[in-house]
Amino acid sequence: MKKIGILHGKERSFPEAFVARVNSKNVKGVHAEPTVVDELMQGEPSPYAVMIDRISQDVPFYRAYLKNAALNGTAVLNNPFWWSADEKFFNNCLSTKVGVPVPRTILLPSKEMPPDTSGQSFSNLKYPLDWEKMIDYLGGFPLFMKPHSGGGWKSVYKIENFDEFFRDYNETNTLVMMLQEAIDFDAYFRCYCLGGKYVRIMDYEPRNPHHLRYVADHKVSKELRAQMHDYVLKLNHALGYDFNTVEFAIRDGIPYAIDFCNPAPDADIASVGEENFEWVVENAANMAIEKALAHKAGANNLTWGSYVGGAVNGLIPSMPVAEKAEPAAKKATHKASKAKK
Description:
Number of strands: 12
Structural class: alpha/beta
Strand content: 15-25%
Shape: globular
Strand order of the largest sheet: 2-1-3-4
CATH architecture of the largest domain: 2-Layer Sandwich
Number of helices: 11
Helix content: 25-40%
Oligomer: single chain
Radius of gyration: 21 Å
Distance between the termini: 65 Å
């Protein structure tokens, strides 16, 4: 029997519907259930061929449990080793290598020194930093400041001037923050990607109250939707995520990837709506069944993206020369349009 487990926290609508959907398909030799975490002995295998992780980002014990399970052959979705190493600033850097437009971004050192460090710990860091140079690189105010890791719209600031920047930066304590160009968007989309092939492009309005964010209908071309579809696959193939969402802000016809490190994205029916919920449940079930049927006992059944896979062979992600020139040309066009205004 190939068992599929789903490890989750307080959420209920998606995990329960997922388990019911997998079992309703009556695939011979495949069964789904909520994961049962027993006493954890080092090096001992898990009874699950496949496990979907919805909670280990908040529970370090679960992350350790999943790494042990993966070491013993469980196909953990998403790869817990990569998830532990990944963060948003790196994702932005990677996107510049694979040809997906992103807002210009700068990484800021934490405002306060981390525990067990002193001024001597930062002897390699230039001081003071050239704030005006960084703001000029980003194109000036307004800007967004957000943590370089994590999610859920926590500690996110919109900054209109230097006074607001220093005021808000002073509140961030030991968080490492990103300072990012604000994309004044015409339309916004949130896109599910499952199994590296199932893509759902959802009209989204982040300025609405949370329960109304999926109540949107953006009038964009089929070509733009197709481009977003390709970008979603390109990013997730590079990162190696089996279950993720990518957000795009559309400015002057260009989709900028804003947030694409969401390995446990919201899938609650109350927020995503019935149609999107049905799509996620159905395709997550299909993905998990495919993984279970392809599972090889005792083997490494994790998904590793092209960045990690290529690194094994000494390769750095890159895009074709023609694609490298395109973002720069588009940036110049945007600057020219701003100058006219």
